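Progress note, sequence design subtask.
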């Protein structure tokens, strides 16, 4: 609950300010003595201070300094006249949240209070996120508190206790290898090797020799025998990243390995025993790959015993503040320095679509930390593609950089946002009327509003 402390040594001015704040529905305490106000900060749960700048003995700047010493999270707003702008600007540099010019205007006061209370909510959420961060990262090395990620954490705990194959599907940058690593670390094989291979990065002609190994003389240049990656993972876990991109002919050999738990080196005759847990991942829809004839159906079913579907970052935006705090904390620890992000910058980051998912977010936050001035990332530091991003106005030039399926989803998302915003504005925010005139069930309309975070934008 927001509680505002009002301080002004002139009783008439304080009375006017009190009426305005009361009309806006805020709880407040009004005092004419700054000393009494500072004492109240110690005894009451004050969240915002609205104080006159020019007062005898203890002026607004001194109230600002003393109150922030008592509680750094307090938001202090100064009431100034036109002639007092210079000290007001100086106060902003000293930590004031904002200033309001006389003559007082209720709309101006409301706008400032709405913005500050929203920022306070974000600050409090970030404080709570820091507490939660240690729990999540220590258990999984994966950041997330959304419902979809909690379900994945529970799935990891269940599947880790088995030896069954797991197929992880998700867009590029969503953290598929981190999920595989978490499964390995929580399994009985955690004390053995985890070997991961990016199936795209190995040239087609070298794939078999890298995976299975080879015997001396198996091909030109094979002057001695060599163990493959499968042998390195024996008794441990093997992770095939982008498994749908493996050459179709080689897929049959991988299937045989999964079925028989035996393999031959390239150029060899001896069948070698193999004890591994196989995990695989792909950014391509595996069933579509089967239908397109590039991924064997029998291999798909062999790998897809325990499927895990990783959501895109745009589908779990509530996790973004937690991730940002984690990446900033990594920077603090590495460089032994202070660093923070303003609530306004965090809001912009949370609103962006993040086509590159977690990988893109981490890269951007790291870059912002390096380039930040005075150990603080503000909205002006953000790249133009983030600050100028508008879900309801997506250009085809931007869409053309995406895959067809993702571009279609983005375009539909933009249409939904723009349509909902316009129909709500036409009916002055009345959800029932907007739904009825749209020919959409009210519950469906509310679900769409929740999906696109439009409730906060209603006036």
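Output:
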């Amino acid at each position: 609950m927001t509680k505002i402390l009002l301080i002004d040594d002139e009783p008439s001015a304080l009375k006017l300010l009190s009426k305005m704040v009361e009309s806006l529905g805020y709880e407040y305490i009004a005092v004419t003595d700054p000393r009494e106000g500072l004492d109240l900060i110690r005894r009451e749960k004050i969240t915002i201070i609205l104080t006159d700048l020019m007062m005898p003995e203890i002026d607004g700047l001194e109230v600002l300094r003393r109150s922030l010493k008592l509680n750094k999270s307090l938001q202090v707003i100064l009431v100034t006249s036109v002639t007092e702008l210079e000290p007001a600007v100086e106060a902003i540099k000293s930590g004031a949240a904002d200033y309001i010019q006389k003559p007082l205007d209720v709309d101006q006061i409301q706008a400032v209070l709405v913005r500050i209370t929203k920022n306070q909510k974000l600050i409090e959420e970030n404080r709570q996120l820091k507490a939660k961060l240690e729990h999540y990262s220590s258990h999984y090395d994966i950041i997330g508190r959304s419902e979809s990620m909690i379900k994945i954490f529970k799935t990891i705990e269940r599947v880790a206790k088995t030896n069954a194959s797991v197929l992880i599907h998700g867009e590029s940058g969503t953290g598929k290898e981190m999920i595989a690593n978490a499964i390995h670390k929580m399994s009985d094989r955690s004390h053995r090797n985890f070997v991961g291979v990016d199936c795209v990065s190995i040239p087609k002609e070298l794939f078999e020799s890298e995976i299975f190994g080879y015997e001396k003389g198996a091909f030109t240049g094979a002057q001695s025998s060599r163990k493959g990656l499968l042998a390195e993972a024996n008794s441990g876990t093997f992770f095939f990243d982008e498994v749908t991109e493996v050459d179709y002919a080689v897929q049959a050999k991988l299937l045989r390995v999964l079925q028989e738990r035996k393999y031959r080196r390239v150029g060899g005759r001896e069948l070698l025993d193999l004890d591994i847990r196989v995990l695989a991942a792909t950014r391509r829809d595996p069933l579509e790959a089967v239908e397109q004839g590039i991924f064997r159906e029998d291999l798909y079913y062999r790998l897809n015993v325990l499927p895990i579907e990783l959501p895109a970052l745009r589908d779990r935006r509530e996790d973004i503040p937690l991730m940002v705090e984690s990446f900033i904390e990594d920077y603090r620890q590495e460089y032994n320095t202070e660093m923070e992000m303003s609530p306004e910058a965090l809001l912009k980051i949370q609103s962006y679509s993040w086509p590159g998912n977690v990988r893109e977010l981490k890269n951007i936050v790291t870059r912002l930390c390096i380039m930040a001035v005075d150990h603080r990332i503000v909205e002006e530091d953000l790249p133009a593609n983030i600050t100028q991003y508008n879900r309801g106005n997506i250009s085809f030039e931007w869409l053309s950089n995406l895959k067809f399926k993702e571009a279609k989803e983005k375009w539909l998302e933009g249409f939904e946002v723009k349509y909902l915003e316009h129909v709500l504005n036409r009916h002055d925010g009345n959800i029932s009327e907007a739904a009825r005139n749209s020919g959409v069930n009210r519950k469906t309309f509310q679900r769409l509003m929740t999906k696109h975070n439009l409730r906060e934008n209603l006036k």
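The domain at 396-457 is CATH 1.10.10 (Arc Repressor Mutant, subunit A). Work on this subtask will continue into the next period as scheduled.
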